[in-house]
């Protein structure tokens, strides 16, 4: 479980289109095809071409990342070039060293491969994605196969979906989710096929074992397949599968696990073993199919029985398809999730106050604590950001007051709390204060430099992929704001960046802005002293 915060720090809850300087321009022809581009887009296209040339000299991870983002930027300008680049970006990932550990915390290869393949599948390039599976990391190949199976099912290509599944019948990364999709898609007259697929999955489990999700809550394993499919299968076969899952779990070594299905302290349960996790997952099914056996499993363990009874409504709800959060072995998460749950309540309260009494909402935000132990972000900063976001158009005076309070925090917050510093320049532009926006650019550059020092701390460096460092995110967002103010400020932002790889990522962000793309930027915090956190900012 990788704690994730989706925080919209733009001026609206969805990405806003890029605003030009207001000068009307006539479109000019581009050499890449018949599509007409404005001079501004033409400039962006030139920057894209420069970024593509620069990418060839970078290390494999950054190169693959840039090629992937380039493919997104080219999508509307030159679809053929976009398709070529996305394939090239995947091939570039094969040169990245394979590491262990969670996605985004240095283990960028599977994360990036998954984003590339899933994007291709979403775009309908099914055969192209299928052709790249052999070069994917095993876990990525399994997940991508599941996604392909689902796509082929939607196109009524059931036979091809089954063929894909059978190709991985003996693989260590069996596509359990794809198997579940097929079981759900097969009609009553195909009961034999359904039994064959489930028995195939069970045989793979017996051969390779399966306990997914330790580092990625989107993973699905044999237990999830049982959760999703048991009502479509003969009860004796389901009970056999549950027995085998529990037998494997009993032989697993003790481990602390945090199971969750939401945010907040009431949405998690601490478990002492994989066996307890399996009971939490499968006991509701056992209670339906064999109540006596379900009772006998808990009879001799009063502590576990009490724990499961307390969370009886949530048992069996770890499946990501049912909004479950999966499970993790990171013991720092309960406190972080509890803080996030409290934060959600506070944000809901502020949202209500913004509708009825904006001044009270502002006072509420100002009164919040700067931060809390074990949680990397500033509570007060997040609250003030919400007030500024929601008031920018409705109540500029309140928004301006919130911005002034935010500006005061720059010197009071530690580096981790600065990671999600709101887009001050954007906000000042929105409330009509360009002078304040230009000053805010300087503030954001100071923050970026502080974060870069934190990201590169030799005693505890950020293990996340460099393109996702908080300092990279701040420079990206600051450049996007500077573009709305003056070309000189854009160059000032780029000149401020001491790292060539980060500079390449940020300059690509400038190209995205010029061609009219508004892509969210993703950040990741992977230090020893805080729970791993990822965030997306628009």
Write structural notes for this entry:
There is one protein chain. It is built from 24 helices and 8 strands. By secondary structure, it is mainly alpha-helical. The protein folds into 2 domains: 97-328; 335-537, no CATH class. The strands form 3 sheets. It has a 3-stranded mixed beta sheet, with helices on one face. It has a 3-stranded antiparallel beta sheet with strand order 5-4-6. The chain has a two-stranded antiparallel ribbon with strand order 2-3. Helix 4 (108-122) packs antiparallel against helix 5.
Provide a concise account of the structure shown.
The protein is mainly alpha-helical and 538 residues long. The chain is built from 24 helices and eight strands. It is globular.
How is the topology of this model organized?
Blueprint: E1 3-6, E2 28-30, E3 33-37, H1 39-55, H2 60-74, H3 79-93, H4 108-122, H5 126-132, H6 138-154, H7 158-167, H8 176-185, H9 191-208, H10 222-229, H11 235-250, E4 257-260, E5 268-271, H12 274-289, H13 291-299, H14 302-310, E6 327-328, H15 333-356, H16 358-366, H17 379-391, H18 396-408, H19 415-418, H20 424-430, H21 434-455, H22 470-482, H23 487-495, H24 500-514, E7 521-525, E8 533-537
Parallel strand pairs: 1-8
Antiparallel strand pairs: 2-3, 4-5, 4-6, 7-8
